[in-house]
Structure formats: structure tokens, C-alpha cells
Amino acid sequence: MKALIMGGGMSGLATAVNLIDLGLEVELVEADEIFGGRASSWLDEDGDQIENALHVFLSYYINLMDFFKKLGVYDRLSWTKPELLMCQDDGDHAFMRYADLPAPLHMLAASLNVMKNYRGVPKWHILFSGISLAAILGKSPEEMDELDGLSWAEWVYRRGPKGAFDFLNGGLRGLTFTEPYALSAKVFGNWMRKVAAGYEYTRYAYANGGLGEIWVGNCLEYIRSRGGICECKKAVTNIRIENDRIVEVTINGTEKRTADIYISAMQAYPLRTLLPASSYALPYFQDLCYFHNAPSLSIQIWLDKQVTDRKEIHTAAPCTWNCMTDLSLVSPQIFKGGSMLECVIAPADDIQLMPDDIIFEKSLADIRRILPEARSATVKKYKIVRERQGVYRAFPGMEKHRPNQRSPYGNFYLTGDWTRTPVSSGGMEAAVWTANRCTEIIAQDKLNKTITLNKEFKIEGGFISFLRYIKPMAMAALAVACAKVFKKMM
Ligand SMILES: Cc1cc2nc3c(=O)[nH]c(=O)nc-3n(C[C@H](O)[C@H](O)[C@H](O)COP(=O)(O)OP(=O)(O)OC[C@H]3O[C@@H](n4cnc5c(N)ncnc54)[C@H](O)[C@@H]3O)c2cc1C
Fold first, then answer.
1. Residue of 263, 266, 275 to mutate, ligand 1, most atoms within 8 A of C-beta
2. Ligand 1 — pocket residues by CB below 6 A?
3. What is the pLDDT of residue 148?
4. What domains can be seen in the chain, in order of their start residue?
5. How many angstroms from the chain centroid is the CA of residue 4?
6. Which helix (H) or strand (E) holds 137?
7. Which of 15, 102, 126, 199 can bridge 106 by disulfide, Cβ–Cβ 3.0-4.6 Å?
8. How far apart, in whole angstroms, are the C-alpha atoms of residue 370 and residue 375?
9. From the CA of 318, how far away is ligand 1's center (Å)?
10. pLDDT tens, position by position, 25-50
């Protein structure tokens, strides 16, 4: 049985690996000149490594970790201390430093740590926000689904004093590329729940080396050494449907390809331009029209001296960029002779329209405002990456529009970080989870086999289950108090 996979990002390549393991004949076509999609890297004209974007591997990416172990690249991840830096002017940072305590006490310790030095809001506001966030932990999956109807801004407005949650905004923008007013409360709540599930899930890693180098090469080798075909510079330009099945796809305008099953591992935007008008009679494909890009830019700045000694992620709001890491501390063998700051600029809705030199000046001004050491450093070079950017914008109400991996067409399946998954609104774990789910469904539909590839992330342990009862207990206490007052009045 032959499968044609359209798109060679992490999800397409992970699907190819899975299908090869199932014994299928696999062909993968990628439009770009490199594989890896958004999680890729390359060398520029000077031989310097360019990352498509700063990528952080969170320890609760349990399915991605298994994928990396299978490829033999898990030990290329470089783990940091479980803490985030919240940048403030003149290097006077606050720290979200998690403690090795049962959940959610590790979070409480982190809030207390932020309180020590965060200047944005009064200290009691932060404590207040910590208590409110604990309520998210106790929610059932159904209650979390209901949160998708609210924006994060609406949720915080109801839950805390003004500005109490602002210290999370740098991280929020970095994770979702979206402002709080446009972001589903479920989506950000979901991220919070994972980190709050246990101290062990607060750790994170970077790729020690170029992303393209550490996983893409091994992945291609895995597929090709088992007979699979992966070709780049092969863009799907048309998908022909007859009798509710794909009968043929066109590559680069002229070349025709056929297979027994077809898998789209493209984002929603190219896919919806390739489908014929008749597909949009089906609600399943109408859902593709709801997807909007939440734009981002990546900027790398090489400085002639070391401007920070901290490998942990620097988050900042308000700032041109929202996240930054000095990759010379992560991969000193690659970035020698000073700092190499890799920053993510998102949401980039407005700034993406500005010329590179303006974006650079604004980013550097913020770096110098925040890191005093950078004020005397000279910029050796900078690079702005505009290609392969963005994630889909997780507006309130978007979850229901994420398509299932099984399409209504009998031989057509979807994968990609934007397709339906409980894990998150995007990101590498979603890319791998959806690849695994797509394979499980194909095994069931076409091989009559039941296989389980995905592991489920469970939020339990510590005092987490206890949190579920906080609301009923508070209601009961309120009822008793009211009864007592009422009795006295009588
Ligand atoms: C700035 C930035 C920072 C990020 N940081 C993180 C992070 O820290 N942690 C994290 O988990 N995730 C992060 N992500 C998200 C992560 O990169 C993605 O979730 C993941 O790479 C998605 O993989 P994918 O295969 O689903 O999609 P993609 O990587 O987008 O792959 C889709 C592929 O389809 C190809 N394609 C499109 N059209 C066609 C066509 N017509 N024919 C053939 N091929 C086609 C594209 O070229 C592309 O290679 C970040 C993303 C960005 C942009």
C-alpha cells in the first residue's frame, strides 16, 4: 500500500516514520528547499547557523521525546534549570523559579519567587493570581472545554485585580503569538495545567546544535534507509477529487502522482487553496476557513561580547520580542566569541510590515534597556527570518474547528500541529501527537489493526486532585456562614 505525504515538516516526517514502521510504501513531497518546516535550521552565506526560530522543548512533550528517542537524538537536547527569567530594565530581573515540591506547591513557590522582585504590580496581586490559577488545575476536561468560549483577557478580568496576571504575558505571547484579548482561555489554561502538573514538567531544553541538524537529518535517514522517498522542491499544486476520493495530485504544476492513501501534513492555508470548490460543501472542509495565521518573526543578533551568563529563557513584556535565549551558552561549539541572541517577535501583526533595519533597531534597544552588559557590546551581525513563521491564532471558539485526522474522503487524512489534539493549540508535541493519531487511524481503516502510539499526559499527583474540591468546599463554607448569619437574624 502506497502513501503520499504532502508536507515535510515535523508532522509529515513523523507520519512517514510511523507508516514505514507499519510496512507501508512511503513517498513524501515538500515544497520548500529544506525539510523540517518551521522546526528547521540552515547555514547562511557566511556559514553561520540560522535557526528558523527559537524552539523550546518542554518536558511534558512526552510523545515528542519518544519520537526523538526513536531517532536517536534525545541526548542532543540541552536541559536548563527549571526557571524563567522575567526581564526588567537594567538587569533587575524577576525569576519564576520552581521548587522541587509536590504539585501545585512547586507553583506556589514560583509565585513567591516572582513576588520577590517583580515590579509590574503590587506583590499581593501576584499571590492572588497564583490562587486563581490553581483553580484552573482542578477543572475537569469538560470545564476546560467551556473555557474555550472565553478569551484569556476575559478570564483574568473576572479572576483577579487589574494587571495581576501581566507578569505571564511575555510567556503567553511567546507560546501563542497572540494578545490575551484574542486568545482562548482554554488554550493558555491548558499550558498552565501542564506546567502545574508537577515539578518534573517545569523543565525545558533547547536543541544543542541546529534544529535541522539534530533531528531532520536522522529522520530522513530513518525513512530513506527503509526504502521511503522524501523529495524537496516538490510543491503540491492541485488535488483532484472524484467520488469522494483523491484520484491524483499534481506537483509543481505538471507532474502527476497517485497513491492508495494521501496525507496532508501542510498547514491549513496551502491546503485550502488546493482543494476543489466542491469540497467546501462539506462542513469538515468549511472548518479550514476559520484558520488565521498568528504571525511571528525570528531575529538573531551576534554581539562581540557575552551579555548574559544565563542560559534560561528570558521573557519580556512589553518588549519588541517576547522570548530570548543566548544560544552561545547552549551551543558554545557553534556560536563562539560573544553572545548570539535568538529572539522571537510575536505577535508580529504590525511589526512584520516594517523594514528589517527598523525591527533590528527596536529589538536591540530593548536588549540594551534590559541587559546592561549589551550597552557596550558591538553588533557583529543580525539576521531576521521571515519565512516559515507563525502558528494558527487560537481565538476563543477555535477548538471546535480543528479538523479530525480522518477526513470524509475515504483515502485522505490530515496531520499537522493545527489539526485536532488535546495537547495544545500548536507546537512540536502537537505535530508529533497528530502524526501518531493519523497513523493510528490509518492502521485501523486500511490495515484493520488497532495500534496505540500516543501516550496520554495525565494531570494528577501531589495535591492536584484535592484542588477539584476547592470550589465545592468554598460553596459549602459560604452556605454554612449564610445559614449562621440567617439564624442570628431570626
Ligand atoms: C517563531 C516560532 C517559534 C516556535 N517555537 C516553538 C517552541 O518553542 N516549542 C514548540 O513546541 N513549538 C514551537 N514552534 C512551533 C513549531 O515549529 C511547530 O508546531 C511545528 O514545527 C509544526 O510542524 P508541522 O509539521 O505541523 O508544520 P510545518 O512545520 O509548518 O510543516 C508544514 C510543511 O508543509 C509544507 N508545505 C506547504 N505547502 C506545501 C505544498 N503545497 N506542497 C508540499 N509541501 C507543502 C511546508 O513547506 C512545511 O514544510 C514555533 C514556531 C515558530 C514559527
1. 266
2. 6-12, 29-32, 37-39, 53, 55-56, 235-236, 265-267, 270, 296, 298, 344, 389-391, 416-417, 426-428, 431
3. 96
4. 2-49+57-72+210-292+393-447 (3.50.50.60), 81-202 (no CATH), 296-389 (3.90.660.50)
5. 26
6. helix 123-137
7. 199
8. 9
9. 26
10. 999 999 999 999 999 999 999 999 99
